[in-house]
Amino acid sequence: MTNETSTVTAQPPMSAVPTLSADRRRPGSVRVTSVVSQILLSLVALLFLVPIIWMLLSALKPSAEVFTTPPTLFGSEVKFSNFVEAWNYLPFGRFILNTLFVAGIGTLITLVASAMSGYAFARLNFRFRGGLFVLYLSTLIVPQEVIVIPMFLVMQRLGWVNSYQALILPWAFTAFGTFLLRQFFLTIPRELEEAAKIDGCGHIRILTSIIIPISAPALAVLAVFTFISYWNSFLWPLIIINDTAKMTIPLGLDLFLGQQGQRWELLMAAATISMVPTVILVLALQKYLVRGIALSGLGGR
Amino acid sequence: MRISRLTKIFAAAAALVLLAACGGNGGSSSSGSSSGGPVTLTWFMWSGSDVEKNAWLHIADMVTEKYPNIKIQFETTPFNDFWTKLTTEAASGKAPCVIGLQGQRAPQFGNLLVPLDDYMSKAGIKAEDFVPSITKGLQYEGKQVALPYDVGPFIMFYNKDAFKAAGLKEPAIGWTTDDFMNDAKALTKPPKYGFWAQSDIGQLLPWVLSSSGKAAVNADGKLDVNNPEWHTSAQWYTDLVSKEKLAAQIPSANSSSSSANQFLAGNAYMSLDGPWDLINAREQAKFKVGIAPMPAGASGSKTWSDGSGFGVTHDCKTPDEAFKAVSVMVSPEAETYLGNQGRAYPALISTQNSWYEGNKTQDVKPVMDAALGNATPYTTIPTWQQVVTTFAKQAVATYNGQGSVDELLSQTQEQGAS
Amino acid sequence: MTALPADVTAAAAAATQAGRTRRGDGKAATGFMAPSMLGLLAFTAFPIVASLIIGFYNWPVIGSHTFIGLKNYQTLLTSNEFHTAILNTFVFVVLYVPLNIVISLGLAVWIGSKGIRFRGLYRTIFFIPAVTPVVANAAIFALILSPNGLIDSLMQTWFGVQAPNFLGSKTWAMPAVVLVSIWQGFGYNMLVFSAALDGIPTSLTEAAAIDGAGSIARFFRIVLPLITPSIFFAVVLTLISSFQVFTQAYVLTGGGPGNATTTMVVYLYEQGFQFYKMGLASAVAWVLFIIILVITVFQFIGQKRWVHYDQ
User: Fold this and answer.
1) What are the b/e assignments for A260-287, b being 16+ CB within 10 Å?
2) Cβ pair B238, B396 in contact under 8 A
3) What is the DSSP letter of A143?
4) pLDDT of B235-286, one tens digit each?
5) CA distances from B121 to B135, B148, C27, C300 (A)
6) Do residues C139 and A257 touch, judged by C-beta distance below 8 A?
7) Chain C contact for B402, CB < 8 A?
8) Contact assessment for residue B310 and residue B100, using Cβ atoms and an 8 Å cutoff
9) Count of structural domains within chain A
10) CA distance A9 to C307
11) How far is the C-alpha of A88 from the C-alpha of C249, rounded, in Å?
12) B74 — phi, psi (to 5°)?
């Protein structure tokens, strides 16, 4: 028996309806209010960005001028060399490569495992499907802290402490991806597959040739969220990695914080470097994110 | 049908993990047999920069030079991570053959190490050749578990240029806590302060020693900090920050601010530190750095000394070779090298001159002798990590005037009971 | 023999087909479910059970483990530090979650309101800190909040007073952690609310406007009820993650000053991975889990009162 969780809301289909923004009445006063509103909103956005702007500005200052009263936008010189120095002081290239590797492989595994199990829940009939799905959902509530302690002990026994697999595997099989894709697959009309079935296609063909291509937005959302989650993960890497050769970016930054307590300008340069990849990712994929969230009908973090 | 499949899968997974858990042991700390054939053993030592790492690699070469059948595989991490990694490796039975050990951590990690007394007498290495305080500091349950390579007393670093500019007499042997207070008052002009206060318990300890002679651990080896002597000193230290305002407020309880070096940045003109940082400080600071012994309190000018050495772990499969390696690491040749490089103030007494000669620090010899003469070993307890962490967190609040000295010391004392 | 009516034949064929499919799916299902199931069992189900068991042991990392029954939980019951940790966590949750929801919803509405252009740009801007490492965000705020940092020097320049030592002050440390968390975290919910708001058909609000409803009334009577499912989800997930706050508190203030920012997970990390008391730490993890579970269940029960699902 299917167990459609009634708690997930199905959003009305995106294409059909005009959005709230279209309003043609009272043009004059609307325009003035909306201009004021736009300006205010821009100010709020600017205020919101102050920490990031300050980070960039501080990263370019000479060491002695990071803390000045009154605060200045620029120091006596603009030191782009701070970035080079920060990069060299700790093996930042290594950290980035490590994090890319872990996040990349982890996301791949997650996509494959979630697509397969999502398909099973959405399209296949088997006994205890309903109960199993509830079980999956319930694991979403379990905080990672419950898991890290036995995980640590297991990794010790396996000799996997301080290894890439320890960073990747524990989080590649969470129920989140299965849930997300199952919800999405359920919204795909079955007619598309019926035709294929009649032609004799097996489930694997159906999944790979029909379902996956249509699911690009949902897959993109899952990929982005998973990648970002790996990229920014801190607690588990802190526990399991203690060798600079295997550190990820958040760990590297924390190490930087601990070692260079006084070189704030280098710290800010390092922070900037650590932000660049995920920001680029989001800028490139921003269109998908809102659409994907809506299409998958999933709530927030 | 479905259930049994599920059970099978679960059982398989569980079995896999448990099997791997039972296997997967066996130290990989050394290869080769102990009979004189070629041996490769791991040496795990902290280092904070490439310069330090290269110094250790040089020592590793010295080992192979003397004993061509021994090859060293050197592993390193930054100091803060060293203890965690060591613990993890030891827990899985894979501790490296030779490890660095700090005197402070001997109670905690001493049980990992093989007693070296027999090896020492066979090889003719005498404990008396080394500075007694650190030799004692590296004992565990009465046995020598590591041979020391460096030692240092905790002393006062001061900014010579600032003292000169303020027309003050430089701190010297025999100066007192009153002198210290007067100097600090004259030098403090916010945001520059006379002194740099820190939340580490080792920073407060010398003041307690000089004021009352009391240490953190009593004669029975138990933590004893919740007593009137500690209260007096802790209150005095707190007033330094919050009442007299001769030291800046402590910014935060996380690791970055405790390692922040306001002294080197020129924001504080006096700071307690060890000679292990002197060479670095003189290189980095834009002013002249001088050192002085602890200002004398009611109990004299007392301080603690600590150092580090090398030991052989129980997990090592080739302990004889490992000891040979250790003996080279603390040999006169190695100590002279380390002293010259400024990597260590040698624990091997006969080689201590190399530190002065190699780094042109002859000017501080009288201070070093005086301080070492008045130094007691930094004795700790096995749960020292908890003591340090608890004290540091609470000290930030207390020193900044937001908690009582009572809270600070009673909470710290609780860690000694567990 | 009379041929069976066509539809009966068809129905019979369909039934057999379905029956065959149902049985046949079992094999396919095993195959498709295998990676995910194995992974879930090994890395989620097994650790959950294991950690429950470890919580009943005294389990130092080096040395032997001894069974001590409920002693760990007893220790927690009487530990002042643990009580503080629970209190701190609740303070954080109570400050963080409402602020997060209100700000993200408010901004989502504002950005989505009529006459605002470049919606995508604003949404991206507010979302950026949500995707950058928390450590980096904490480092930036450490710079801004420290003595002689941006806030202090601005206050000295404009008002001639020194700012409090935020991160070194027992009263200000937790608000500082909350501030960083909000700045970092509300972007996600804002996107979710934006998606929900985008999906509301304007025919509804226009009809209300024609009937004379002002924009505030339109918002509270029509828009808000329609997006309650998204609000519910956002609240549930934000609550769950807020109880797990660790990185900001650890990086910004190390859990101090005193125990001012020692949250439950900071305490867990300290006990488990700095003092190596794994049994005690497991017990802490389970207490955290139970608290989260109870609160989530209450949410689900209570949703009937205020969440409107209409399809």
Assistant:
1) bbbbbbbbbbbbbbbbebbbebbeeebe
2) no
3) -
4) 999 999 999 999 988 877 665 444 446 787 788 899 998 888 888 788 778 8
5) 15, 16, 71, 73
6) yes
7) yes
8) yes
9) 1
10) 11
11) 28
12) -90, 130
B residues 1-30 near C, CB within 8 Å? 1-2, 5, 9-10, 13-14, 16-17
Q: Are strands B143-144 and B139-140 parallel, antiparallel or unpaired?
A: antiparallel
CB atoms within 10 A of CB C287: 20
Sequence-ordered list of residues with C-beta below 8 angstroms from that of A98, at least 6 positions apart, any chain: A164, A246, A247, A248, A249
Mutate to test the interface with B, among C72, C84, C169, C180 (most CBs of B within 10 A): C169
Query: The CATH number of C79-305 is which of 3.30.70.1150, 2.60.120.10, 1.10.3720.10, 3.40.50.720?
Result: 1.10.3720.10
Q: What is the pTM of this model?
A: 0.81
DSSP string, B81-130: HHHHHHHHHHHTT---SEEEEEGGGHHHHGGGB---HHHHHHHT--GGGB
Measured between alpha carbons, how far is A172 from B193 in angstroms, rounded to an integer?
Answer: 52
Say what the pLDDT of residue B140 is. 92
**In which region does residue B244 sit, left (phi positive, over 0), alpha (psi from -120 to 50) or beta (all else)?**
alpha
Is there a contact between B251 and C276 if contact means CB atoms under 8 Å apart? no
Q: Which of B275, B155, B173, B139 is nearest to B209 (CA)?
A: B155
ipTM attached to this prediction: 0.80
What phi and psi values does residue C164 have, to the nearest 5 degrees? -65, 160
- The CATH code of the domain that includes A199 is 1.10.3720.10
Residue A114 lies in a domain: yes
Find the domain containing A135 and state its range: 81-299
Token digits of residue A277: 């990849």
Q: How far is C183 from chain A (nearest CA, A)?
A: 8
Q: Apex CA B226: angle with CA B223 and CA B230, to 5°?
A: 100
C-alpha to C-alpha distance for A224 and C116, rounded to whole angstroms: 27
**What's at B175, amino acid-wise?**
W
Kindly give, in sequence order, each residue whose CB lies less than 8 Å from that of residue A132, ignoring residues fewer than 6 positions away.
A121, C33
Are the Cβ atoms of A157 and B21 closer than 8 angstroms?
A: yes
* C54-90 core/surface letters (b: 16 or more CB in 10 A; e: else): bbbbbbbbbeeeeeeeebbeebbeebebbebbbebbe
- Rg over alpha carbons for chain C, rounded to the nearest Å, is 27
Residue A69 inside a domain? The answer is no
Kindly give, in sequence order, each residue whose CB lies less than 8 Å from that of residue B217, ignoring residues fewer than 6 positions away.
Answer: B223, B224, B379, B380, B381
Q: Does C210 touch chain A (CB under 8 A)?
A: no
Q: For residue range C42-88, list pLDDT tens digits in order.
A: 999 899 999 999 999 998 877 778 899 899 999 999 998 899 999 99
Q: How far is CA C51 from CA B183, B201, C246, in A?
A: 56, 34, 19
- Residue closest to A275 by CA, chosen among B273, B268, C271, C140: C140
Does a structural domain hold residue A277? yes
More confident residue, B51 or B309: B309
Rounded to whole angstroms, how far apart are CA atoms B150 and A116? 60
- Please check whether residue A148 lies inside any domain of the structure: yes
Question: Residue with structure tokens 């600090």?
Answer: B184
Whether C217 and B216 have beta carbons less than 8 Å apart is answered as: no
Residues in C touching A66 (Cβ below 8 Å): 143
Which residues of chain B approach chain A closer than 8 Å at the C-beta? Answer: 1-3, 6, 17, 20-21, 24, 48, 77-78, 80-81, 84-85, 88-89, 91-92, 94, 254-262, 264-265
Nearest to C289 among A143, A151, A291 (CB): A143
Phi, psi (rounded to 5 degrees) for A24? -95, 0
pLDDT in tens, A7-42: 333 444 443 444 444 444 555 666 788 889 899 999
End-to-end CA distance of chain B: 52
- CB neighbour class for A186 (10 Å; exposed up to 12, middle 13-18, buried from 19): middle
